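User: Can you predict the 3D structure of Tetraspanin? Sequence below.
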Amino acid sequence: MAGVSGCIKYSMFIFNFLFWLCGILILGAAIWIRVNKDGEEILNPGNSVTSPYISVNILIAVGSIVMILGFLGCCGAVRESRCLLLLFFIGLLLILLLQVAAGVLGATFRSDSERILNETFYENVKLLSETDKEAQAFQEALATFQEKYKCCGLVNGAADWGKNFQQNFKSCECTSSTDSCVVYEGKNVYKQPCISFIKETVAKHFLIVIGIAFGLVFIEVLGLVFSMVLYCQIGS
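Assistant: Sure. Here are the predicted structure tokens for Tetraspanin:
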């Protein structure tokens, strides 16, 4: 029996060490997505309090908690502490339940989030043809975005700029003669509006978050099993 307990003990330690490393990876990936601000200025002009990166912020919190739980699990396994193992089990179970709840809510409100995203794009288009301070800040952000990702306008192409096109066309000027370019008001500009790239970026980030979440669920279930088996072994 002692051999089985020792085997479980060291398996639990190795598992929790890997679990701790997973926490670091999750935290690193989430911070990378959060720091990568492609499209954030376009989605949230001015002082908007809404953010398309709420799920990423939650993932940062989850990664931090996973690191702490991994440390607790390692200490519980090495010291054979039932208290630490129980704390690890309860914390892991709560995270798992929260992930399931978040997944259900995410699936339920996904259509609403897509609708809100589209409404945000079409609302922000108005800022391109205006001249106030908030509009100018948004126009500067979009001009930088256009030049970097070779797109023009937000939804309808160069026409989104309205009367401000002539003073902002340089950022979306197309120097090649391929199908990706069109002529608008005598200027050769990119045909693709920036909405396409922004939606692809948001979708890519969403898939990364979903992939990490599913992988984490599998690891968490293993952690629950290991911790409870070791907990019972120590008790006996």
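Residues 6-235 form one domain. Strands lie at 181-184, 187-190.
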